[in-house]
Specification:
Length: 178
């Protein structure tokens, strides 16, 4: 499940969802949190049911190293964003900038995993970050920045996870090995 990426997409989608729904107050927030948890669990259960077990040899060392380099750079940039935005007094820009970095990290991962469709979350997360920066630049409230970035990012990642699961389910129905 995690090899296919669905587990990671679902869990990180939940993280973005929680960020986005932090803009809600009253009874809406707990309902949104429960809905997000349900979506995540549903995606993970569907992946477990429809996706084949991991097969074959371990991930080749050169590809594993490239994956680690890409993720290491991503996390380094996220830390730098947090420190710089915090010190500059604009913590509201952390989520949009992180969304752009996370989005862009999917581009080299598309090559590492030989999955060109990873360009889709790359574009969608980058758009989510740009939308959040636009809201901020237009003097929108911090809550709206979080809402826009969080929900767009969550829906992008969950959509990619759902696409992966439905593709595997469709292939299984046709008798094709996914």
């Amino acid at each position: 499940m995690f090899k296919s990426g669905v587990g990671f997409l679902a869990l990180f989608g939940l993280g973005w969802w929680l960020l986005g729904t932090s803009a809600f107050g009253g009874w809406v927030r707990p309902v949104a949190v429960v809905a997000g948890c349900a979506a995540t669990i549903g995606l993970m259960l569907a992946a477990r049911h429809f996706l084949p077990a991991s097969e074959g040899a371990p991930f080749p060392a050169d590809r594993r190293r490239r994956f680690q380099q890409i993720n290491g750079l991503q996390w380094l940039l996220i830390i730098v964003i947090g420190v710089v935005c915090g010190r500059a007094g604009v913590p509201v820009l952390i989520p949009p900038l992180v969304a752009v970095v996370v989005g862009l990290h999917f581009l080299p991962l598309a090559a590492v995993f030989e999955q060109p469709r990873l360009r889709i979350p790359a574009a969608l997360l980058s758009v989510a970050g740009a939308a959040g920066m636009t809201v901020w630049a237009m003097n929108g409230p911090d809550e709206t920045v979080r809402l826009v970035v969080g929900l767009l990012s969550a829906l992008s990642l969950w959509g990619m996870a759902a696409w992966t699961v439905t593709g595997a389910a469709s292939a299984a129905e046709r008798g094709v090995r996914a």
